[in-house]
Amino acid sequence: MDFDLSEEQRLLKESVDGLLGDAYDFDARKKYMKEKGGWSKAIWGKFAEQGLLGLPFSEDDGGFGAGAIETMIVMEALGKALVLEPYLATVVIGGGLLRRGGSAAQKAAQIPGIIDGTRSFAFAQLEKNSRYDLYDVATSAKKKGAGWVIDGEKFVVLNGEAADTLIVTARTKGSQRDTNGIGVFLVPGDAKGVAKKGYPTQDGLHAADITFTGVEVGSDAAIGDPEDSLALIERVVDEARIAMCAEAVGVMDESLKSTVEYLKTRKQFGVPIGSFQTLQHRAADMFVAVEQARSMSMFATMASDFDDAKERATAVAAAKVQIGKSAKFVGQQAIQLHGGIGMTMEAKIGHYFKRLTMIENTFGDTDYHLRRVTESGGLV
After folding, report:
1. CA end-to-end span of the chain, whole Å?
2. Mind listing the pLDDT tens digit for each residue in 78-112?
3. 255 Cβ contact partners less than 8 Å away, ≥ 6 residues apart
4. pLDDT class of 258 with cuts at 50, 70, 90
5. What is the chain's alpha carbon radius of gyration, rounded to the nearest angstrom?
6. What pTM does this model have?
7. How many CB atoms lie within 10 A of CB 234?
8. Which helix (H) or strand (E) holds 150?
9. Residue 158's beta-bridge partner residues?
10. Please, what are the domains in the chain?
11. In angstroms, rounded to a whole number, what is the distance separating the alpha carbons of residues 61 and 54?
12. What are the pLDDT digits (tens) for 333-361?
């Protein structure tokens, strides 16, 4: 298996690294965090100008026809910069559901707005008691004429407060934990009956708890089969997990670099603390953990094209397990090696650890995915 980047992929990496290096230092991030919705519309526009928002879409839809490797490159760069903008929610998840399940009319209506940066999305999936089970859906979608009426509650919807369009999972038939009878619906963010309660999350992003009360949508709101969309949801959520693995690698890589730099400059007893052998060993262990995570992120990226759904899901779960283990180790070591300053809001290393913690708990934590791998007969 060839893990070397092509010339086009190297150029993409240089391009996105250059953009974020110029526009996304730690102080700039603090400013963007204070903007409406918790992210910068100007930066989002720059993403659009560089074509980053159109990468995974086909040329027929106005995109560039890029694949999982290109998404990995972008997500790793976004992780290094602790980017706040909703690339995961809009391009990876929203765009993924449209690419894999949307009708021609839905693609024509929605994808151009994603590509040019005028439209952002949020995935309203998590419910109060559902934990990580994608099929645990109590929110209902009932037929009304040719359309649907949606009722229910969704929680911790990333970008939910600012999103122009919500993509909502809702049950069209069956009981709460049935694996069939689940649909995916496009709902305007300002639709009548939609109530949002926005708040910042621990890692500096913004989310919302959203209540749907008699929200009416047309027959064209359903993405794919409204009674059998679980396989579509699982496929796109696996792609989101793969993207987050790459983001976590970027966060860990930058955490390691920041820690090594601190060890070189922080002095004790008149010498840099990086000269102490014990701390060198801990930094070396961090490096090993990062490289283990990088290898599994690459493996998961390659697995995104597996035809066998079970094989793909097991590979992604295994990657999420390693990412979770490495993230916890690297984050804890980075904080400890920074000492007291690592616990302050002014030091960026703590913000890296917060982001790693949130990634570990999104779409299944380490224990959840370890159980998935074990049940499939795999080993980690």
Report:
1. 21
2. 999 999 999 999 999 999 999 999 999 999 999 99
3. 286, 330, 331, 334, 349, 352, 353, 356
4. very high
5. 21
6. 0.95
7. 17
8. strand 147-158
9. 207
10. 7-119 (1.10.540.10), 122-228 (2.40.110.10), 231-376 (1.20.140.10)
11. 9
12. 999 999 888 888 888 999 999 999 999 99
Three-class secondary structure of residue 331 per DSSP: helix
Q: Give one DSSP letter per residue of 206-240, joined into a string.
A: EEEEEEEEEEEE-GGGB-S-TTS-HHHHHHHHHHH
What are the φ/ψ torsions at residue 64 (nearest 5 degrees)? -115, -5
For residue 347, CA distances in Å to 13, 27, 99, 138, 294 come to 27, 11, 40, 41, 25
DSSP-assigned states of every residue in 71-130: HHHHHHHHHHHT--S-HIIIIIIIHHHHHHH--HHHHHHHHHHHHTTS--EEEE---TTT
| Ramachandran category for residue 37: left, alpha or beta (phi over 0 → left; psi -120 to 50 → alpha) | left
| Contact in structure between 67 and 246 (CB atoms under 8 Å) | no
Residue with structure tokens 């980690």?
Answer: 380
CA distance to 234, 249, 300, 311, 320, per residue, from 373 (Å): 16, 21, 13, 10, 10
In whole angstroms, what is the distance from residue 21 CA to residue 19 CA?
6
Positive or negative, the Cα torsion across 208, 209, 212, 217? positive
Instruction: Give Cα separations from 320 to 68, 78, 340 (angstroms).
Output: 16, 18, 30
